[in-house]
Amino acid sequence: MSKISLSIFLLLFFTGCGIRHYALSSADIVIIKSPHLRYADEGYISHNKDAVLLQMYEAGTLVKTIRLNHLICVDSEGCLTKQMFNDKYLSSSYPPDILQDIILGKKIYKGKNYIKVQGGFTQQISNLHVNIFYSVISHVIIFKDFKNHIFLKISPLSP
Predict the structure, then answer these.
(1) Domains along the chain?
(2) Which of 16, 52, 73, 146 has a CB 3.0–4.6 Å from the CB of 47, allowing a cystine?
(3) How far apart are CA 134 and CA 142, in angstroms?
């Protein structure tokens, strides 16, 4: 590996989970259930145009922080590529940006089966690897993958 390649790699690796300034923040009830990640309590979601910070609390104590940008960093567990994170915590069949898209209430799977409804949208995606119901309605985000036993729900703490 050349010195330039090594320098670029080290720069990306060490800045992947660096300090970011987030423009928007919200307090939410966050529920995440997957075979390898379980959480249900208050969470704070902060984001800017290219990064998301999810801080999860239990009984008022910070228990887990997930930073998403070009990498996904989970507390002391370190940083992973988005696909490696999916492989470890969600499903290897998911596209790399799915967690960030869900947290931000964006379309998933490039808008496949997108249906606009009053107050938001829904998507249903089913194939050999997934059976997903996803809805973003009135600031409530629900993601269910029946095949992979994954459930995420994010709803505002206060109406």
Answers:
(1) 3-156 (2.50.20)
(2) 52
(3) 6
